[in-house]
Amino acid sequence: MNSRELAKIRRAKLDRELSHLFSCNPLSQRDVRKIIGQKAPSAFTFIRCQQEFIVAVDENDRKDSKVKYELDVWGFVFFFELMASGIKNLHFIINTSQNTDIRNEKWFVLFLRRISYLKNQSKNEFSHKISLLNHSKLSAIAIPAWSLENNKEYLAYLPEDLPERNPKSDRNREHVLQWKIMENIKRDSPKSLVIPEFPCQVILPNGDKKKLSIDLIDFGPKEIRIIEVKHGDNKDLDAVPQTLDYFIFINKTLNQILKSRMILDTGSLKSVHCYLAAPMAHPLFEKAAKAYSILGFKIEFIEVEE
Known about the structure:
The chain is of the alpha/beta class. 36% of the residues lie in helices and 24% in strands. A 5-stranded mixed β-sheet has the order 1-2-3-4-5, with helices on both faces. A 5-stranded mixed β-sheet has the order 6-7-8-9-10, with helices on both faces. The longest helix has 22 residues.
């Protein structure tokens, strides 16, 4: 039995367990299309149950598929589409029958940080819930209170530990697009300091250090711009939550970054802005961006030619 067949079995089992727990059936892809006008990743289970909307995924899919960054974005897209019809609560469920401690997984630490940040920023009166499902039993995960000061164990900028990552291969389409955008920025704003593959670091609760990098960061005369670069037809929605991770990181470590990079003229820096630069956006990007904007995080799309 191959991995795809095993994944189908896991997802079918998850659907049955959730149907039993909530006495509501998962949405079919036909139902999904009626709500948001597009199909959704098959790794997710979506359930509309009275005033609650549930987004569930199996931990194995979180590790093995590209949806690892998309749990929250799909939840918010559905939630804001369904608010007018009476949905008031959003419930994220991760099925974990593994022996690994999910609280020390990088994706889960980042996911909790994003939810904590958005819950703090949001002025809307609705609830977010996160639960783990293990052997048909749900256990609630507390969403930590948001504070930049409390993020020290999660996010840190340590230049000595983070050599800048080498740019991607010249044959890589995203790398070519990345450098094209850099050249355009330098042409339009000669005073900007543009850095590709800017290193970030996540420190997990167990002390492990995990690296990630920002495609482009532009230290301009009046603003800092975080730019996520995508090429091709942009089939995934991961750019929105990924860029929020970077936004949280930069806001947390900005003073350290400016000092370590010897960027001395910081008096005119006004704000940090986030962008997705790509030849085309995901069909649901505008809905996703609107949802996150309501929650307190703004990202804009910039169309660029390959």
